[in-house]
Write a structure and sequence with these properties.
Length: 487
């Protein structure tokens, strides 16, 4: 009997521990559940926040979504189709890696080996996204790009940062500078992976600019649109494993009628769900950015915005619709090698420029602004189109290139080309109005010259005629005198 109380005493300790453990677990579950409910309620409340583009007169109304900030951006024209608090500072989470890849690709080759230091591997939380790279291992830069874009591997993002920037801080500074070059002026990056830091932020508009540049890079777009990738063992990395993309519009969990060209997911407790996605349809290339949303609504919001964009907007070739600026009708703006009149226009609207406009708006209703300081060096003017203050696209007025005629003796005069272009910029900008004004002055001056010349000539002829008339009577009188003498 004395043994039982002793056994009971020893049994009481684990029972107490189990009870305490249960209380801790139960108490920890309740706040998580409460936080989840609070997040859902916050997302519902955000649906009531204003959508800036819905206040533009005549603009198609966009859907109410639970994201704190969102944008639908046409990458080729720079047109903002949908805007919701697009300039507010938000935590990006792992969509930061879009900027990481875009910067790194300009400073490394695909077959470069990316080594992993102790800092790169162990400076991230053990429960964050990674692919299990160990200190001292290395993979190619191409594999590293797949690792960060498909598996969102944080230690690999660190490895890229150290390889390109020398250290993590320098690379982060390079990211901010690169973003500014793209026009993203409301972004500040402190790391390459996107794990939360107070001063690590971006905006929906800035991420749209960054993503648009990312999707223009063919290789990056391909990597960012990869469903899965296979890592095979090498001398510097011994493991064999697959990684899979969790972006539901990329991996096929959500099917759409248009082409997805890539994207990136992101999540932290502070940022909530973030998402970058690119899609193409009927000539439009749309970039959708979702910031601070709850799962799985970041994907549903993206589908809603793509459907809104492709159904309410259309792409329009400017040269095919513009008849207010008939440049080709001016016969003196012609060029060609045929002296008998077979010539082509010297200047014309760029045939490849287009804009994106609402389907419910007519082309002639668009506002037009002409700039004689175009962004393209080969152009002499630029026509910008907008609708109620929203930029829709532009067309340049270009000098039409004339093909040089070749002749049998051309081979006797070799053309020497400089290996490097001269640093001096000899670009000449021509103002069409000034050209026309100068031509008119020359024509008027020529006409006045001929009129004055003809007047002087007529005056001289008239003077000579009067002098001749005065001489005739003298001859007649002299003749009469002779006749009288004879009589």
């Amino acid at each position: 009997m004395s043994a039982f109380p002793a056994r009971a005493k020893y049994l009481a300790l684990p029972i107490t521990l189990y009870l305490l453990l249960g209380v801790v677990v139960f108490s920890s579950v309740l706040p998580v559940h409460a936080t989840f409910e609070q997040n859902r309620e916050a997302a519902e409340a955000r649906k009531l926040l204003p959508i800036e583009t819905n206040h533009i007169e005549g603009w198609p109304d966009g859907p109410a979504i639970g994201a704190a900030a969102a944008i639908l951006y046409e990458a080729n024209t720079g047109t903002i189709l949908y805007a919701k608090d697009i300039h507010s500072e938000q935590f990006p989470a792992s969509i930061t890696k879009v900027m990481t890849a875009l910067l790194a690709v300009d400073h490394a080759n695909l077959d470069d080996m990316i080594p992993f230091s102790y800092t790169a591997v162990h400076s991230i939380p053990w429960d964050s996204s990674h692919i299990g790279i160990d200190v001292g291992e290395s993979i190619t830069f191409e594999q590293a790009l797949y690792a960060i874009m498909v598996a969102s591997a944080n230690e690999v993002a660190n490895g890229i940062a150290e390889y390109v920037g020398g250290d993590l801080e320098t690379f982060a500074q390079m990211m901010t500078e690169k973003a500014a070059e793209l026009g993203a002026m409301n972004s500040n990056f402190l790391n390459a992976h996107g794990l939360p830091e107070d001063e690590h932020y971006t905006s929906a508009y800035d991420m749209a600019l960054i993503a648009a540049a990312f999707f223009k890079h063919e290789m990056l777009a391909k990597i960012g649109n990869t469903v899965s990738y296979h890592f095979t063992p090498t001398e510097t990395q011994p493991d064999d494993f697959y990684i899979r993309n969790r972006h539901r519009l990329i991996n096929g969990e959500i099917e759409v009628d248009y082409k997805i060209i890539g994207g990136k997911t992101g999540y932290t407790n502070l940022s909530r769900q973030t998402l970058v996605t690119g899609a193409e349809n009927e000539g439009m290339r749309l970039v959708c950015i979702i910031l601070k949303e709850e799962t799985p609504e970041q994907f549903n919001d993206t589908v809603l915005l793509f459907d809104y964009g492709f159904s309410n907007f259309k792409i329009v070739n400017i040269a095919e619709h513009e008849d207010r600026y008939t440049i080709e009708n001016a016969s003196f703006f012609q060029t060609g090698s045929d002296i008998f009149g077979d010539s082509s226009p010297l200047i014309s609207l760029n045939q490849n420029d287009y804009l994106v406009m609402p389907r419910n708006v007519e082309f002639m209703d668009l506002d037009v602004d002409i700039s004689y300081q175009p962004s393209k060096a080969s152009a002499i003017a630029e026509i910008n189109y907008s609708y109620n203050g929203v930029h829709l696209g532009s067309a340049t007025v270009d000098l039409v290139g004339v093909e040089r005629q070749t002749y049998p003796f051309d081979h006797q005069m070799p053309v020497v080309k400089d290996e490097e272009p001269p640093e001096e910029d000899n670009t000449v900008f021509v103002n069409v109005r000034q050209v026309i004004f100068v031509i008119i002055i020359v024509v008027v001056a020529s006409i006045l010259f001929f009129i004055i010349r003809q007047a002087i000539k007529n005056h001289r002829l008239d003077k000579r005629y009067r002098r001749k008339r005065r001489k005739k009577p003298q001859k007649r009188r002299r003749h009469d005198r002779y006749e009288g003498y004879k009589l």
